[in-house]
Amino acid sequence: MLCAGLTAASAILPASAQQQAAKLKVVTTFSILRDFAGNVGGDRVEVTTLVGSNGDVHVYTPTTGDAEMIRNARLVVINGLGLEGWLPRLVKSSGSNATVAVATHGIVPRKVTVGEILSRDRGAGSVDPHGWQSVANAKVYVANIRDAMVAADPADAATYKANASAYLAKLEALDHDVRQALASIPVQRRMVISTHDAFGYFAAAYDITFVAPEGVSTETEPSARDIATIITQIKKEKIPAVFLENVSDPRLMRQIASETGAAIGGTLYSDSLTDEKGEAPSYIEMVRHNIRTIASALAN
Ligand code: ZN
Questions:
Q1: Chain centroid to CA 24: how far?
Q2: CA 279 to ligand 1 centroid distance, Å
Q3: I want to staple 98 with a disulfide (CB 3.0 to 4.6 A). Which of 25, 73, 114, 290 is the partner?
Q4: With a cut of 70, which residues of the chain have pLDDT below it?
């Protein structure tokens, strides 16, 4: 009798409430995956993300709320390639039965090479986890997320496939626009100094060389002597553009610009989207912002 009563109750729920209840619950590890999952899932999914906008996915400490979120999810979408070292323990402790989908499945992993810009968690020979920075790879991510949603919720397969096709077409156009933005800049001029360590796939895909500042820690603010070394390096290697995120002193940036003639770039976004009011609220806007910033610095 109780069962019959419940069935009768659900039958008289408004259609919108029934759809709400039927949504596929998806958890992603960081904001870029949230954006991909939202584009593929559309109104058939409820996507939450563990590391939100402007957060650092490399060094995240999960909360008890996160375990709850994963326990309630049907699908967990992760980057893989060692990005979320904190995740396996979280999934295990949550007791979740969710499927864990690895969005980078099938991409060619890039090895970090000697002399590259290195951060605390990556040594030469280790795998670079920032696969999404090449738009061709982003298409692989989206195809994997589509397939995972279709498997988790076959009833809505047609919607996931249609949404993915539409979004993949936008990524195709984005890739074309990135190449177009760089087309008039000779490859030998596509050289920037950067403290960012996240652009290896981007650099490889679009023939841009990211040079690490010599003898300068990427973790701390460079000293006046470090800046003098960078100036020498820019002159010697004829580097046209400089992006130093950890230099907050505008006088040092002006000094670099006036002594070298190099263009000082703005902010490049790598591992996290911004909120709606920021410069990179979606993956597509992030890539467009980065390429605009780099191309305009190199074109000067
Ligand atoms: Zn990173």
A1: 23
A2: 18
A3: 73
A4: 1-21, 114-124, 218, 300
Please tell me the distance between residue 239's alpha carbon and the centre of ligand 1 in angstroms: 24
Q: Which amino acid is at 116?
A: E
Of the candidates 174, 148, 173, 150, the one whose C-alpha atom is nearest the C-alpha of residue 161 is 150
What single string gives the DSSP state of each residue in 211-255? EPPTT--SSSPPPHHHHHHHHHHHHHHT--EEE-TT---HHHHHH
**3-class secondary structure, 85:** coil
CA-CA-CA-CA torsion sign (188, 192, 196, 202):
negative
Residue 261 in tokens = 């003639």
Report how far ligand 1's centroid is from the alpha carbon of 281 (Å): 17
What are 265-279's pLDDT values in tens digits? 888 999 999 999 999
Q: What domains lie within the chain, and their CATH numbers?
A: 18-178 (3.40.50.1980), 183-299 (3.40.50.1980)
